[in-house]
Amino acid sequence: MEKIALIMGDSARDLVISPRSIKRMEQIGEVVFGTGSDRESVKKALAGATIAITTWGNTELDADILSVCPDLKLVCHAAGSVKPIVCDDLWNKGVRVTASAAMLSMGVSETALGFTIAASKNFFALNENLHNGLWAEGKENIRELYELTVGVIGGGWAGRHYIELMQAFDVDIILYDPFVTEEQCEKMGCKKASLEEVLKESDIISIHAPSIPETDKMFNAQTLAMMKKDAVLINTARGSIIDEAALYEHMKAGNLKYACLDVFDPEPPAADHPLRSLPNVIMTPHLAGLAANGLKKIGKHCCEEIERFLKGEKMMCEVTKEQLARMA
């Protein structure tokens, strides 16, 4: 019989795992609850476990901690990056590891979709006009998601899900990602493009790239100038990808229909940050990932990964040591 250890405190557990998911785990084996993320609490909960569930704030699973669970075979990380919890001791033991990045990215791509629709429909300006006593002024700037070109930067979990969501609309989708092949793009329902092509051809650009040296300030004065004057720029990825000073100058001059930003560099942006003064810059407080009740999807995903693992099926979000070395 499996022993599933939830090595997290009550508050963390309540955030990502619903009672329904707990019951589902109890159908698989004995479920043990940790009382915290400190080393001694983790060791106490992990003793004799075959499966562990970790989340944000957990300590690294090193040789000392692993000594209490010699039969451990799977770690489900109920969060995004597994970097804080893995080490060579875990890999050398042959423990399989899976994460919830795909679930978290769903919130990101769905937020990007919301920005896409709202900006195309000109919701932001029309709302302000109505509050100021006007009526249909600005309605002429509405664009339907029809026969537009949507550019996507980054074909990871969030980018792929955004592309999937955009299939509901009659638009052309192009993707810039050096690591995604033309065949993979075709399977996703988009076309592979260069960064310059995405910048020049897109009516809407949604950023879903990681924060790595190659993407730092990718959107700067030079690249922003390549975009269509009435295009929409959406960033739900990382703030460092956009040169905010350059974006301010570009938007202040009346370029781009909207820049929709959920991420900044640094966060939060200063109270007197220049971008706050521009009505064509839409700002939200880094809310794009799963939030509130949506975080419970993570617990459901952990259950599904455990079931797939025990059936000998391919897990959706397994992370290997080699993959982790390539991640930001």
General description of the model:
This protein is an alpha/beta fold. It folds into 2 domains: 2-99 and 292-326, NAD(P)-binding Rossmann-like Domain (Rossmann fold, 3-Layer(aba) Sandwich), CATH 3.40.50.720; 105-283, 3-Layer(aba) Sandwich (Rossmann fold). 36% of the residues lie in helices and 16% in strands. It is built from 14 helices and 12 strands. A 7-stranded parallel beta sheet has the order 8-7-6-9-10-11-12, sandwiched between helices. Helix 6 crosses helix 8.
The count of domains is 2
Reported by name, the CATH topology of the largest domain is Rossmann fold
User: What is the first-to-last residue Cα distance?
Assistant: 37 Å
| Average pLDDT for all residues | 94
How many β-strand stretches?
A: 12
Short summary of the structure?
36% of the residues lie in helices and 16% in strands. It contains 14 helices and twelve strands.
Provide keyphrases for this structure.
single chain, about 325 residues, alpha/beta, Rossmann fold, 7-stranded parallel beta sheet, 5-stranded parallel beta sheet, 14 helices, 12 strands
Task: Compile the SSE list and pairings.
Layout lengths: L1 E5 L3 H7 L2 H8 L2 E5 L5 H8 L4 E4 L8 H4 L7 E4 L10 H5 L3 E4 L1 H20 L2 H9 L14 E8 L3 H10 L3 E7 L5 H7 L2 E2 L2 H7 L2 E4 L13 H4 L7 E4 L8 H9 L5 E4 L19 E3 L12 H15 L10 H6 L2
Parallel strand pairs: 1-2, 1-3, 3-4, 4-5, 6-7, 6-9, 7-8, 9-10, 10-11, 11-12
Helix pairs in contact: 6-8
